[in-house]
Design goal:
The chain is built from two helices and nine strands. Strands 1, 2, 3, 4, 5, 6, 7, 8 and 9 form a nine-stranded mixed β-sheet that branches. β3 and β4 form a beta hairpin. The N terminus is likely disordered.
């Protein structure tokens, strides 16, 4: 398992785009799927799946701004856990590489980055 813990409360440095009113986030590991998590909020009830990029897209390495690392209390990018939102459908499963969630695995403090440019896809197909 990666540095993200299997079950813990999270605190976002700023609201996630589109989820500005959500609060009470928790990250829960999915049994039998190392590196796959359910992100849930208490109010309103929201549940989405996140994948540890180090496990599912190991070549993915977006630049994390120094200000983001500072906000998260991290001294280096290597100390962060990068999670990507999973979009499962009947046809295929994709991940959003354009808006990763960067997590300080020690504190549970995190932020969602919205990356500029077209280098990373909103719906990158997740291969088996």
């Amino acid at each position: 398992m990666s540095t993200a813990q299997a079950a813990r409360e999270l605190s976002f440095t700023a609201p996630m785009p589109g989820l500005e009113t959500a609060e009470g986030f928790a990250l829960r590991g999915i049994d039998g799927a190392p590196g796959l998590y359910a992100l849930e909020s208490a109010s309103p009830r929201i549940r989405m799946f996140l994948a540890d990029a180090a496990v599912y897209v190991p070549d993915y390495a977006p630049a994390i701004p120094g200000s983001t690392l500072e906000d998260l209390g991290l001294e280096a990018t290597e100390l962060a856990t990068t999670l990507v939102v999973v979009n499962p459908t009947l046809e295929k499963t994709t991940v959003n590489l354009a808006a990763p969630i960067v997590l300080n695995p020690e504190t549970g403090r995190c932020t969602q980055l919205v990356l500029d440019g077209r280098e990373y896809s909103l719906r990158a197909e997740l291969s088996a």
